[in-house]
# Entry
Amino acid sequence: MAHSPFVPLATLPARTLADWLAQGRLALRTGPLTFRIACGEGIVADNLRLLYGHHAVADSPPFADFHIEVARPVALRRWVRPQVEFRLDGYAPFLSLPAAQAFAMMEWGMNWCVASHCHQYLLLHAAVLARGDDAVLLPAPPGSGKSTLCAYLSHRGWRLLSDELALIVPGEGRVYGLVRPISLKNDAIEVIRRTLPESTIGPPVRDTKKGVVTHLAPPPGSVDESDRPALLRWIVTPRYRAGSTLHAERIPRPEAMAMLIDNAFNYDVLGETAFSTLTTLLGRGPAFDLHYAQFDDALRWFNALEA
Amino acid sequence: MSTSAARNWPPDRLASLLNEPDRLTELSEGGWDTLLRLARRANVMGRLAFATRGLPEKALPAPCRPHVTAALALADRQAHAVQWEIGCLRAALDEIGVPLVLLKGAAYLAADLPFARGRFFSDVDILVPRTRIDEVESVLLKHGWAGTHHDAYDQRYYRQWMHELPPMRHLRRGTVVDVHHRILPLTARFDPDPATMLERAMPVADDEGVFVLSPTDMLLHSATHLFHEGELPNGFRDLLDLDGLFRHFGAARPDFAAELDARAHTLHLEAPLAFARHQCIRLLKTPGIAPSRNGHVNRLSDALYDHALRPQHPLLDSPGSGFARWLLYVRAHWLRMPPHLLAWHLTHKAVGRFRGQPAENDV
# Structure
């Protein structure tokens, strides 16, 4: 039986998108993975239309990597202060959240699917950007401004691969990204709104456990190339320091190694393979600690990186 | 009442795909999509991944291969971790001269049984003499395992009524060991004596000081648990273990069926054995076994077990599935506790839930 081809999500009539979602027929391609989504929440359809407009979708293809569902749990909470639950094949890894957070929950759930199953990759908690086929890895602790910088660079000539998850092919330096919306929190939302007025930002959701959160649509050019891997050349841990002048410092290799292991989701699963993959990576390119206050300075510094 | 997926994916079809991997090559991409989902939910992805190892790489549709690679990595890692854990436990028990007798998953792995390759598991279960239980607990504490379930009620539940200590978690590695001193809860209506099981335990080849139950006892232990367990989140996987035990020992030992009958008679475990045979024949079409002679068939219980011994996936569930599993939960508690204790226990748990206490690994 022939099945329908993948088309950009934005080309679907709103009614079709809502129907496919409600009936669990929507398959969404992000990087090398396909998610099949079932969800009856209008807020999820609206956010998908706004933030995933360029992504390829299809109606019920024969195979998907993950079949996910965001739905009301069977209980009173269906109606009283409604809650939603994220489920993969009927299993709910998280506690339910208010229905207003349905889209954010889906995003976190998709990250969980990848981080806890995709051991075909060495998975790092890091942003990835590329210039041509040369990629820079940005591992950084929460609160360092990693997503904000990643959002900025991806709108100034760098190709976005991921703002959260680096999918590294073991034994190689090739990296894939899921090219999904960039998550923005609290003050960063206003900063990006001001700095990148041309960008598409979703409606803010208040009172989540991370404060106010929203998502920024990935640049269409990056989405179009979302299944194109890049070769990791540089590692940079960016830190926003108000009022400082730009300052970059080489991170000694042992420290860089420890930091990468710390940021890996499945270092323990891949063991020796993970160790040798990271060693190869550090052997190929330098690791830097970057302090900056101005986006422009940071952009100039990144553009000057030599392959 | 059943869904079309439930009709297309009966447990015996899943079992035959795992036991006869050549049949995997007949699956379409859509078939693989469903198979991977069911296997993931049933916790048998590692087993499935191992089944594909003998096939030419091109035999699998391209989008499935990464999932197989991922499951193999996880299964390898777990096998490695359990081997390490076994070494640590042996070192601890050596100090007090108690032999390390492994149960369930860790035992299947240590004995290198074919169906254990790729099996996922979380805890290591061990059996120790009841007279040494306090010493075992102390020496494990000394080696870094700490008790869980600090709530006074749960402590009493385990220590007075159960057949095991509260699970102990290693402070550094986070691994969990379940220390059993009986086969079944102290309060259960059947009460097989574990002493003779310990006496008959057999050394594991190439792993000095490590023991597993004898083939008959290993199977009877597995059958007893399936028969008495109230919550069967891994019901299909557990039934698959029994299928594997019947197949492996049935092929290796010509009189295995007679040995089983004799041993079940001695331990008063005829009912669990009859149950295991019946469900394996009925649901998995396990070859080479015949129903127990005195086993009687209960149609209601079969109808309930249909829901508990297949992967608990929404694709297969029907509106009655949740209720069926709840009835089995009550049945299991009925078997393991006298009525007044059962009423007290279920009330305590219900009140706890009502007050919003988290059900810590729900006992």
